[in-house]
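Hi team,

As requested, here is the filled-out complex form for the coenzyme A run. I kept the field names the same as last time so the parser does not choke. Let me know if anything looks off before we queue the next batch.

— J.
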Amino acid sequence: MHLREVTDDNREAVRALRVRRDQKQFVASVSKSLKQAARHPEANPWYRAVYVGDEPVGFVMLSWKPPAGPYKGRHFIWRLLVDKRHQRRGIGRETLTQIAALVRADGATELLTSYDPGEGEPWPFYEKFGFEPTGEIDDGEVVLRLVFPSR
Ligand SMILES: CC(C)(COP(=O)(O)OP(=O)(O)OC[C@H]1O[C@@H](n2cnc3c(N)ncnc32)[C@H](O)[C@@H]1OP(=O)(O)O)[C@@H](O)C(=O)NCCC(=O)NCCS
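And here is what came back:
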C-alpha cells in the first residue's frame, strides 16, 4: 500500500471511490473534498490517493499545519475513506500508519481528527489505532487525538 498524488492522470479514478450507502453520513465524497480543498487554501489542505499496487482504493486529506483557526499549527485528518470493495483488509490502518509517520517526520507530537457520532461510526477504528477523545466537540463532531511518544 502506498500514497500517491492526485493528478490529471488518476483524478477520475480517485473521484470514483465510494463508501457504502450507510457510511455516507460519516464522510464527504472525494469530489466534494477536492472542491473544499480548492476553496479553502487557508486550511492548508494536503491530500493523497491510497493505492494497492496500481489500483486506487482510498483517499486521505489533512489540514496540514494551517496558519490559523482551531487547528493552527497542528495536523488534522480532515477526510479518510476506503472504497467499500476494499474495506476491512487493513488498508485504513496502514493509511493511518503512513500518515502518522509523515506528520511525525514533520515534527508533530500528535495527530488530530474528528468524527460524527452515529450507528456505524468510525470510532472503534480510531480507538484500535490509539486515538483518544480530547473532550472537545467541534461542530457536532467528536475530536480525537493520537499522541506520539516523545523520541
Ligand atoms: C473507517 C475506514 C476508513 C476504515 O478503513 P478499513 O480499511 O475498512 O479499516 P481496517 O481494515 O484497516 O480496520 C482496522 C481495524 O478497525 C476495525 N474497523 C474498521 N472500521 C470499523 C468500523 N466502522 N467499526 C468497527 N470497527 C472497525 C477493523 O475491524 C480492524 O480491527 P481488527 O484488526 O481488530 O479486525 C473505512 O471503513 C471507511 O472508509 N469508512 C467510511 C468513511 C469513514 O467513516 N471515514 C472516517 C471519517 S472520520
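Two things worth flagging: The pocket of coenzyme A is lined by residues 19, 23, 26-27, 80-82, 87-93, 113, 115, 120, 122, 124-125, 128 (CB under 6 Å). The radius of gyration is 15 Å.

Thanks,
J.
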